[in-house]
Design a protein that fits this description.
Rossmann fold; binds 2-hydroxyethylsulfonic acid; about 250 residues; seven-stranded parallel sheet
Length: about 250
């Protein structure tokens, strides 16, 4: 049987881990990329299909390139690239945001995603086979206070995804942008609030947020569709979340 290979960034937790688990059950062998080696090894040991661990920061382009180049032949052909690594940092308004937070978000959400895509894509084109799934966000399309650079970085992901479709027309390579809303049970808000558990917990209080496996199930479905079907974009929100209209400030007069 033709075993498929998926490369997942940000594989040590949250959506990455949930998707690794699902894709492994679906028979994929996996290249797991994240900084925390022990978490990747633990995950790899818990899965039944073969895994290759790349413990590396996706922003360290030199190390990432070297580790990718050194992957065993068994993992040479990548059928699915899941660009999942990304983060939100801070929820301050633009005038008060930390410049370093902005820099890190643009670096990780845009630059690293573009870099890895540029690394993997030529071989996909050569094989005329492959699927790139990018993790965007509803923040790309719906402005909220404090979303500033995070939302803008995810708008890059969305536009890059659809622009890839334009470039890849005429090939069998598929590209999908997944734009989830509020997802609980991940480190997303812990990271956004720089470890402030109370602020992070408050985001999910009294609401039934999406779970990582909800997104993982969608990724498995999208990747498993017949090769003539391309989902360009999938937007997901929990039922308790909606784009509920514009805001008018009546205190300004
Ligand atoms: C995650 C969704 O609403 O926190 O990208 O921006 S949100």
């Amino acid at each position: 049987m033709d075993v498929k290979t998926a490369l997942i960034t940000g594989a040590s937790a949250g959506l990455g881990l949930a998707t690794a688990t699902r894709l492994s059950k679906a028979g994929y062998q996996l290249i797991l990329v994240a900084r925390r080696e022990s978490k990747l090894i633990e995950l790899a040991n818990s899965l039944e299909t073969d895994c290759h661990v790349i413990a590396c920061d996706v922003n360290n382009f030199e190390q990432l390139t070297a580790m990718l180049d050194a992957r065993p032949d068994q993992f040479k052909n990548i059928d699915l690239l899941l660009n999942n690594a990304g983060l939100a940092l801070g929820l301050s308004t633009a005038d008060k945001s930390d410049w370093n937070d902005w820099h890190t978000m643009i670096q990780t959400n845009c630059m690293a995603l573009a870099f890895l895509t540029r690394q993997i894509l030529p071989a996909m084109v050569e094989r005329n086979k492959g699927h790139i799934i990018n993790l965007g966000s509803i923040a790309a399309n719906y402005a909220y206070k404090g979303g500033n650079v995070y939302g803008a970085s995810k708008a890059f992901v969305e536009q890059f995804s659809i622009n890839l479709r334009a470039d890849l027309l005429g090939t069998q390579i598929r590209v999908t942008n997944i734009a989830p809303g509020l997802i609980g049970e991940t480190e997303f808000s812990q990271v956004r609030f720089h470890g402030d558990s109370e602020a992070a917990g408050a985001v999910y209080a009294n609401c039934d947020a999406l779970r990582p496996d909800d997104i993982a199930a969608s990724i498995e479905w999208i990747a498993g569709l017949p090769k003539h079907v391309n989902i360009n974009q999938l937007e997901m929100m929990p039922t308790c979340q909606a784009p509920a209209g514009l805001v008018i400030d009546k205190t300004m007069q």
